[in-house]
Amino acid sequence: MILNTLDIMKLLPHRFPFLLVDRITEFEDGKRIVGIKNVTINEPFFQGHFPGHPIMPGVLILESMAQVGGIYAFLAKEVGENQVTYFLGIDKAKFRKPVLPGDVLQLELELLKTRRGIYCFKGRALVDGKLVAEAELKATFMDQ
Q1: Containing H/E element for 23?
Q2: Catalytic one of 14, 23, 32, 49
């Protein structure tokens, strides 16, 4: 299953400049999802983070992972159209390497468990096959 940006915008409420997923390249119900974020120098956060030395903020890498997790729940048909994702927790977050303009961020989320509407994922962000960030994410979904 492959979703493009227009497909993703039908599932998530996020819009520019906060939509941080460009494509979904893999989805296995009950197992995992893989998304792509193309990081360009035109990202608004690079204006201030940091001038002359642009680095994607770690919190936005985590947000990218979370958005991919939200897409997982919609594709798994666990969440309805009028619901939004709410972060419940981030554990074991580690940042290994900086993400720079021109990088293609591959976001891999593995479903660890789901219980009473709470999803737990192990997320990994890679650039050129190298781990740049990882975290465990918890989220739930509520009506808008």
Answers
A1: strand 23-28
A2: 49
14 is catalytic: no
How many structural domains is the chain composed of? 1
Interacting residues of 116 by C-beta distance below 8 A, sequence separation 6+: none
Distance CA 51, CA 121 (A): 33
- Say yes or no to pLDDT of 79 above 90: no
- Mind listing the pLDDT tens digit for each residue in 80-136? 778 888 889 999 999 999 999 999 999 999 999 999 889 999 999 999 999 999 999
Query: How far is it, in rounded angstroms, from Cα 17 to Cα 32?
Result: 26
For residue 33, CA distances in Å to 11, 51, 111 come to 15, 34, 8
In angstroms, the CA 2 to CA 22 distance is 11
